[in-house]
Amino acid sequence: MENGCWLFGGEFEDSVFEEGRERRAGPPASYCAKCCEPQWFYEETGSNDDVEALTIKKFKGDLAYRRQEYQKALQEYSSVSEKLSFSSFAMKRDVQEGQARCLTHLGRHAEALQIAANLENKATNTDHLTTVLYLQFAICSSLQNLEKTIVCLQKLISLHPFNPWNWGKLAEAYLNLGPALSASSQKRNSCTSSDKTIKSSSLHSEKDCLLCFPETLPGSPRFSVDTSGSDSQQNEKALKKKRGALLRQTQIKACAAFVRTRLLLQLTQSQQTSFALERNLKTQQEIEDKMKGFCFKEESLLLISEVMGEDIVPEKIKDEVHTEVRCVGSAALTASVIASSEEFEDKWFKKIKDHFCSIENQFQTEIQILA
């Protein structure tokens, strides 16, 4: 046999030649579970083990958080975080998440977001990243920042595209975004109106003082009449049209997210019982009621259902439920989620938006022909 060539099966693991462990005869030793009284960690344990002492302090923080004593919980978590060794990765993550949630409840959102960003950078598997994204979602929801809340949900969906509850939350966020757009637009209009009022009152006061100040006579640089009324009306119409288009797009995205939520719930319905099935059916009914408010044609709803259900097959749902935790580097994890909201919406809603755009263009053409 030539050098460097091996026969198939010519290598064996060392374990093949090891002797098996000797089995003891007789029944196995009985297992005695350790019983703990409620709130046992508040008693003096007198433990010399640093890890156990820190674990007890963490439990105290958890109980304080449950009791909504957020300042007390934050103190416990912070005390533990300072004393944890660098090798205690799991407890470090739990404690930092607790700190961020306490800070959120205490209104210190900037500090909470900083901790969440640090946790995201250190995430090494999909479970870590999922937990961090839920944390960021909670912080942004508390801030009532709809845009960032939507981005958090979009990232969660890119990791878990078959989770119906995240799709439902995204639909609700889109619905809430509609009134927010209207409110911001109305605020801009009111600011414009107030500016006009100020200019008008200033103009009247100048007219009253014409005899006193020659430089305010008509024709002088300081005296000018606002002739932008027609331009203002045109701008207002354009703004109103743009606002209407944005609201319509938001409704389309909300409807699409609701449709996918319902499709996913319908697929898992046969596997559920008891309160899980009850929640499923109740949510489907709520979605049905909200869908009626969109007033979309049946043809459009069928297209939305077709597009949002293209990838929904039972095998994929099973893979999502029983998925293994993917341990990868932070760079690979970052690549597994969407980079921007535009990327997410292009992936999921582009076909639907193109459909509605074509209908709108056709409608505008018909109006022009009739005119």
From TrEMBL:
Residue stretches in coiled coil: none
A Pfam match: DUF5588
Taxonomic classification: Eukaryota, Metazoa, Chordata, Craniata, Vertebrata
Name recorded for this polypeptide: Chromosome 8 open reading frame 76
Naturally occurring in which organism (per UniProt): Loxodonta africana (African elephant)
UniProt-listed InterPro entries: DUF5588, TPR-like_helical_dom_sf
